[in-house]
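Revision sheet: structure tokens.
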Amino acid sequence: MSLYSSTDSALWSVIVEEIEARRPLVCATVVRDSGSVPRRSGAKMLIHTDGRIQGSVGGGLFESLVVTDALSTLRIGRSVTKNYSFNPKGTSPQAFGAVCGGRVEVFLEVITPPERLIVVGGGHCGRALARMASLLDFDIVVADDREEYARAEDFAFPNVSRVLHLPATYEGLPAPDENTYVALVSKGFLTDEAALRQILDCPAAYIGMIGSCRKRDTVYENLRKDGVSEERLASIHAPIGLEIGAETPEEIAVSILGEIIRVRSQRRRPE
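Predicted:
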């Protein structure tokens, strides 16, 4: 006898599709039940960010409450367990006037895409960064406008999912979402600026740009002329990385990852 039903298999397939498309969702699972309830333990439902559902944990007002709680859980980014009472005389916030008389416990599991690191530049620093980041839990994308620095065989490290050869404008660079970290370490300030322009309007968790303060000021002045706000410029980490006296590509990679880990830790910290 199969451990999972065909419905479960369909839901798992949807989860895989959504994660590959970098769209978060919530999987609601009935983990405990007692008394008369519409669905028993094991019932599952997926809730998308727009409120769409697939599967069912019981229907009716109860299911509507689960969807509301799931969307709230998705906003805070933390999985929770909720109790619901099918009791018309219940006084708890989870009692909603049903006449079944039972209780269910629902695990609302937030499923998010893996945190992604986009490395713009496949030269010495970019390669060292990709190699060291492969030891962490990032999905890594490397991009360069030079064909000789965008060969997949040169980045055969764990967790490197794509190596992109892009034009010098960096058109086609993946749009960062709120779980994406971007390191601009390309061949010079022109290509770093070009890549930066492609992602400035995206909600990246981190954007860092390599180079001196003079380089940073030159790029920022160009962006100011095109109306980029001071607030947005202040959100960019430039010069990139922690100040640890790094000199070699490997040391620079350590300083960059140290700064990224610090930002990630601050984002993960409960409010």
